[in-house]
Amino acid sequence: MPDSAAAPVILGTTGPFPHSVLAERHPAIVRQVRDAFPYGPEQTRALDELLLNCTEGAIEPPPGDPDGWRAWGLDTYAGQSWFDVPWLWSESWFYRRLLDAVGYFGSGPWQGIDPFRPFKLAELDAKETDEELAALDDLGDDPGLALLHGSLWGNRADLGFRLSAESAEAVSALVADDSAALRPLLSGGTLCLVADNAGRELVPDLLLIAHLLDTGAVGHAVLHVKPYPYYVSDATTADVLDALRRLTAAPGAAAGYGRTLWSAMADGRLTVRAHPFSCAPLPYAEMPGDLRAEFASAALTVFKGDLNYRRLVGDRLWPPTTPFTDVTDWFPGPVAALRTLKSDVITGLAADTVAALDAAEGQRWRTAGTHALIQVNARTPEAT
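User: That's the sequence. What structure does it adopt?
Assistant: Structure tokens below.
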């Protein structure tokens, strides 16, 4: 692992982008959620209090120990400004407190009601999804590569990103492309795919899994999702089921992929996993032993999306030329990242690539969602 002292942890005050998420995006999300449901006075009041607290107040722990958050740093950061603690932590705490405000964990009628569900379903039912599913009827000579890129670029503008910015225009070039290193790792073993967003991103993730199962490239797939709603659009088990129904009800090749996935879940070739650490405000280097053992047993673990990338390499201001293999050498098995860039964290780039991007776009290329990467660390701990 490279010297982390040279790569400070990103705080809410580390540059304009983290600050804008806390000061602008989070209030926008509170308002969107409030308007999406006919919440009663109790939920409305709690949302208004959260809106004020997350922008002007200090971190206030509720009674008890929600989901083990004290072990995740709650006592350390209580009383501090949301902007002065690690950005990954304050972002995660915001979503946990939002669920408290709407009664998701309570015993009343709003228990278990996903406050982001209307946004997820609207995206899943959009005409753009129909167009993307229709494209499955003609994937060309290399359907595996087409589906890999579909999974990658499906993340270019998730729902939380679009609440505060217009959809990014996709570009064809990747800032890093290790896709050739993926195929040798897929030889009939187990694939762990750590999902990111629901809706139009989860669908291509599922399509990629279906293709790999159908072709025998993997014998078993484990799809890791969130145990509860998180970061607006992060996928839960309910979102997986919605996506499967969307596929099986579609015309053409899409329905065939849906049937493959449906039967794979029924016979155990596809497993959905919702580990509590998936919603932790910590890097994956601090994951518990049972999750580490699960990833160690996989032929390949793929982390999807920007948040999972931040948690994989550490939410730090690494020099962008820091090798991806160096920041992931702690991982217990082969690991890959499929990510569209929507935050400042970046590793594994060539110096000339960084220079060209900085010259053309300043720092915007890191956060705008217009660039993507495929990075692979094929080394195992025994080989390092």
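The CA atoms of residues 218 and 296 lie 16 Å apart.
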